[in-house]
Amino acid sequence: MLIDHRLDDLRSELDGRYAAGWRRLAEQCDWYRGQTPPTEHPSASITYFGPAAANLALAYRLTGHEHYRVEAARWISAAIGFPHWGKAHLPDHDLDAGWLLHGLSLAYTWLGDDFELADELRAKLELQGTRLYEFAVESEGSWWSSSYWQNHNWICYTGLAAAGYALGRKDWTERAKANFATVIDLLPADGSDMEGVVYWRYGVPWLATYLDLLQDQEGLDWWDRCRFLANTFSYRLQQCAPGFEENIDHGDCHDRRSGHSVALYYKLASAYRIGEAQWLAGQVAERFFWREAYASGVKPGVMPEAYLELLWYDDTVPAVAPAESTPLSAYFPDLGLVTARTGWDDQATMVSFKAAPGGGHQAWETSHRLDTERGWETLSAGHHHPDAGSFVLTSRGAFLAVDEGYSNRKRAGDHNLILVDGQGFADEDRYHVYKGAPYERQAQMVDVLAEDGMAHATARIAAMYPAELEIERLDRTLVFTPAGRLVLLDQCAARSPREWTFLLHADWPLEFDGDDVVLRSGSAQAWVRTHSPVDVSSVVTEVEANPTSSTPSLRLTRTMHTLRATAERNTTATLLTTIEPTSSLRPEKASGRRIELTRGCGIAFEGETVLLADDDGYIEGEGVSARAKAVIRSDTSGLSLVVEGELS
């Protein structure tokens, strides 16, 4: 599979075009040589056995060197010896089975019929494939078999397809094909991923892996049909923190360094001729790879992708640096995700702001329809946090306003959001906060304008809170200026008096400087200034999680330092807040001050002005009149942005 038609080219260019890929593959195989695969199934995940077999088998097929075949046999023998694939969670029926079926099926075809374990391996693949296939059929409508937007679906069905192609089991390959025909038509065309960057890096390569298998084995080219894959690199690129090494961590993210896949970047570059993907693959391979390999909390990690890096590399795609071609602002409507940055370099400032229903609009709409029609449960958005209306802010190589990362008991209060009478979203404080939620419980991102490194957007999130709070309005408008400053306007209303609390989380303890709050991290600092009457305090927020059911003992913890700014109990509240990033080594003073307007509200910074309309869409004041949602001016850059309207 995958290499028959190009075997001569690969072999002849191992010291030419594919020299870097071959070096990576050889180093990875050498790493396996120094390991001892367990003879008894460990309590933790065994997903790594799949790519181990594939890497060693490919090295043997390309070179004919016997030591790679012998080493492959050592690892494959151990995998064959396990009575079940997977131990702590759904043995034979979930990720371990999917990973091993895929990798060992490739190895089976690459090692050949004369491989000493060929018969035993074939029998094991037949057994495990049957177990996974039967589970997929029996569980349709409940777990991963019909969770079309979830990585478990993609991994398990790709493993089943690989085994089906290797063994000639058309029933397996046809079921996988029917599944992926649905998946690629239902995934959002804008390429955004509700599971977040870390699970994008873990799960999306399997979509590409399946399409690669399908094209190789059946001659079907579904690459253009899959608009999600065609556009998903743009999503991933815009979720790079400035400097590209770290990632914005919306959703379940183990850490901020588990977001890159050189192999997937190569494949997307090749399939869709994306020069920026080729460029980022090179940057990661040369500058970031080894730090991610050892610092990442996601297993089996990036190192075992060596065989895919070699097979998916296409040297005909010219690399294009994002700084030369990619907009500084972006909007992904399905996830309600707005991003803006002052630049792509590691000293730039960036914001990422999001609001959408659970799973994103496409998944929310479609899952409710399918579940109603068929009595199924398809959404499985457990990695999507209760974070509609929240944002992440980074500057000068450090994170200033942060997300909590991975959590099992997900709460709005662990995000940069608003609490109402101390409460977050309805039905939260559990793993899957959107499970069983009524269709009407939807957040919306409206009035979006993202261009030239500026952004304006309003998150409407009142529907996300418990009905008993009787919230009639909770709208958050966020503005990102050309200089990287933030203006936040929270407009709140309820039928009964409520306590409205603005939350802002940071990695390091907060400091107070007069009426200002100071966030510091590394070389970055931000002045947080409230322009509404609030009581301000600081608390510590602790989050603990187990990121994988296959390893129950694993624990991730994060400590956040939280600003709480609470307005006096009332039926309405208007909270106006500014955040001004600067250098922590040579800080510039905060300059944000509120402008008195007859209609609307405004903030004046040094060299920049942000004016926001009243509820009727008017901005009126001394020297300004506009029928618009907002007016953003920058004296420094000469830019002026009018959101949905015009100046009088």
Automatic annotation (TrEMBL):
Major localization class: membrane
The keyword Glycoprotein is annotated on this UniProt entry: yes
Localization of this protein: Membrane
Keyword Glycoprotein: yes
Record keywords, A-Z: Glycoprotein, Isomerase, Membrane, Signal, Transmembrane, Transmembrane helix
InterPro entries per record: Chondroitin_lyas, Dermatan-Sulfate_Isomerase
GO molecular function term, any single one: isomerase activity
GO cellular component, one term: membrane
Membrane topology: Multi-pass membrane protein
Domain of life: Bacteria
UniProt cross-references to PANTHER family, sorted A to Z: PTHR15532, SULFOTRANSFERASE DOMAIN-CONTAINING PROTEIN
Protein name: Heparinase II/III-like protein
Organism, scientific name: Kribbella steppae
